C-alpha cells in the first residue's frame, strides 16, 4: 500500500483535529459520484429511463442506477454503523456552511490554487513510481472528484489561516530542514529463501552449493510468501534506522554487509532459517522544491496559525452552525439536526416555568 509521506498528511490531520465540521466523508461522496465513472454495460437492455441506466451486470441480472443509488444511501458501515445517507446530509450541511462563510470572507480557492495542489499531490505519487491516474481508477475515482475534494480541503485551510502569509524563502528554508519527509530513504531490493525445518535447510544448502539458481531453489523449497516470485521481495525495503518490521533484524544485519548479487545464509531466525540475496541498492532521493512548495507552504501556514487561531475558526463555524436555518425533510435523517443543533437542556425548564400560572 502506498502512503503519503508524513509531512504531506500534516495538513489533512490538522484539519480533522481542528475543525471536525469540515471532515469530508469520502466514502459517501465517491459512492454517489461513481455512476458517472462507469460505462454502460454493453449487453444490457436499452434504458427506459435515467433510473434504469445499468451500472453493473451479473450474468443476466442488471444493477440499475436507481438501485445503485438506493444502496449508496442506505449502506451502513464504519465505526458508528450509520447509513451513508445520514452522514452525507450531515456533511452537506457542514460543507455548505463553510462554503457560505468562505464566500463571505472572500477566501474561496480559485481554479489555479486547486490545480496547483492537485499537481503537487500527483507529483508526490509519481515520485514514488505510482501512476496517479491508475491509482485514482483503482479506487473508483476521477480527476473531477479529486478536484472537488481538494477544493473542500483548500477552503478549510483558507478559513483557518486567513491573513497568514508564507514567502518563498521561508518555504525554501523549511524544505531543506524537512525534505526527508517528502523524499524516499535509502532502500534495498532483496530476494530470500525461508526454510522451516532442518530437512528443508539441507535441501536449500545442497541446491545452492551445486550452483542452482537462487530463484529456482526458492520456488522449490522456500516456505514464505515470496516463493512464487522466485524469492523476490517486490517492494523495496527501507534501511533507515527508524524502519520497523520490514525485515527480521538478524537478516537485515547480514544483508547490509553484502555487495549486490551476493548471498548470505543460512541465518537462524527463531525456529527457521533464511538465505538472503542483495539484488540492488537504492540511494535516498528527494523531489525538487518546486514539486512540493505548495504542500510545504500550506503546512507552514497551519504552523503559523497555531492552536489559538485554529480554535477561533472552529468556534466561529460552530456558532454559525447553531444559528443557521436547517431543515431535513426525510424522517429517517431528521436526527442529523440533533447533532448539528442540539437543544439547550436549560432552556426547556425555563420555558415551562414561564407557562406556570401565577399563584
Blueprint of the fold:
Elements: H1 6-18, H2 26-33, E1 54-58, E2 61-64, H3 65-74, E3 76-77, E4 82-83, H4 84-105, H5 111-127, H6 132-138, H7 143-160, H8 168-182, E5 187-195, H9 198-209, H10 214-221, E6 237-238, H11 249-255, E7 263-269, E8 272-282, H12 289-323, H13 336-340, H14 347-355
Antiparallel strand pairs: 1-2, 3-4, 5-6, 5-8, 7-8
Based on the model shown, name its key terms.
Chitinase A, domain 3; 359 residues; single chain; disordered C terminus; disordered N terminus; 52% helix; alpha+beta; two-stranded antiparallel ribbon
Describe this structure in words.
With 359 residues, the chain is α+β, with helices and mostly antiparallel strands. The protein has 2 domains: 6-181 and 289-340, no CATH class; 187-282, Roll (Chitinase A, domain 3), CATH 3.10.50. Helix content is 52%, strand content 12%. The protein contains 14 helices and 8 strands. The chain has helices at 6-18, 26-33, 65-74, 84-105, 111-127, 132-138, 143-160, 168-182, 198-209, 214-221, 249-255, 289-323, 336-340, 347-355; strands at 54-58, 61-64, 76-77, 82-83, 187-195, 237-238, 263-269, 272-282. It has a 4-stranded antiparallel beta sheet with strand order 6-5-8-7. A two-stranded antiparallel sheet has the order 1-2. A two-stranded antiparallel ribbon has the order 3-4. Helix 4 (84-105) packs across helix 7 and helix 5 packs across helix 12. The longest helix is centred in the C-terminal third of the chain and has 35 residues, at 289-323. Mean pLDDT is 81; it is low at 1-48 and 350-359.
Amino acid at each position: 500500500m502506498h502512503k503519503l509521506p508524513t509531512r504531506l498528511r500534516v495538513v489533512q490531520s490538522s484539519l480533522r483535529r481542528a475543525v471536525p465540521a469540515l471532515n469530508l466523508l469520502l466514502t459517501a461522496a465517491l459512492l454517489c459520484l461513481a455512476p458517472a465513472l462507469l460505462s454502460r454495460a454493453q449487453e444490457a437492455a436499452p434504458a427506459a429511463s435515467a433510473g434504469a441506466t445499468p451500472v453493473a451486470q451479473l450474468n443476466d441480472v442488471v444493477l440499475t442506477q436507481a438501485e445503485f443509488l438506493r444502496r449508496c444511501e442506505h449502506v451502513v458501515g464504519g465505526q458508528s454503523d450509520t447509513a451513508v445517507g445520514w452522514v452525507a446530509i450531515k456533511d452537506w450541511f457542514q460543507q455548505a456552511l463553510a462554503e457560505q462563510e468562505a464566500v463571505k470572507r472572500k477566501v474561496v480557492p480559485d481554479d489555479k490554487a486547486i490545480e496547483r495542489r492537485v499537481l503537487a499531490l500527483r507529483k508526490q505519487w509519481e515520485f514514488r513510481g505510482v501512476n496517479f491516474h491508475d491509482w485514482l481508477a483503482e479506487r473508483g475515482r476521477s480527476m473531477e472528484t479529486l478536484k472537488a475534494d481538494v477544493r473542500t480541503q483548500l477552503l478549510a485551510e483558507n478559513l483557518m489561516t486567513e491573513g497568514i502569509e508564507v514567502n518563498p524563502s521561508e518555504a525554501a528554508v523549511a524544505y531543506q530542514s524537512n525534505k526527508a519527509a517528502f523524499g524516499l530513504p535509502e532502500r534495498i531490493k532483496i530476494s530470500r529463501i525461508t526454510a522451516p525445518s532442518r530437512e528443508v535447510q539441507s535441501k536449500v544448502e545442497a541446491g545452492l552449493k551445486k550452483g542452482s539458481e537462487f530463484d529456482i531453489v526458492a520456488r522449490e523449497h522456500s516456505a514464505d510468501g515470496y516463493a512464487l516470485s522466485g524469492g523476490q521481495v517486490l517492494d523495496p525495503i527501507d534501511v533507515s534506522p527508524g524502519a520497523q518490521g520490514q525485515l527480521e533484524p538478524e537478516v537485515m544485519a547480514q544483508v547490509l554487509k553484502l555487495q549486490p548479487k551476493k548471498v548470505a545464509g543460512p541465518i537462524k531466525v527463531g525456529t527457521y532459517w533464511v538465505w538472503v540475496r542483495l539484488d540492488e541498492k537504492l540511494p535516498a532521493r528527494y523531489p525538487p522544491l518546486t514539486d512540493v512548495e505548495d504542500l510545504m507552504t500550506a503546512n507552514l501556514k497551519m504552523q503559523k496559525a497555531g492552536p489559538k487561531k485554529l480554535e477561533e475558526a472552529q468556534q466561529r463555524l460552530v456558532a454559525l452552525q447553531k444559528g443557521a436555518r436547517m431543515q431535513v425533510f426525510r424522517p429517517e435523517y431528521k436526527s442529523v439536526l440533533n447533532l448539528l443543533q442540539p437543544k439547550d437542556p436549560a432552556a426547556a425548564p425555563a420555558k415551562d416555568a414561564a407557562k406556570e400560572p401565577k399563584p
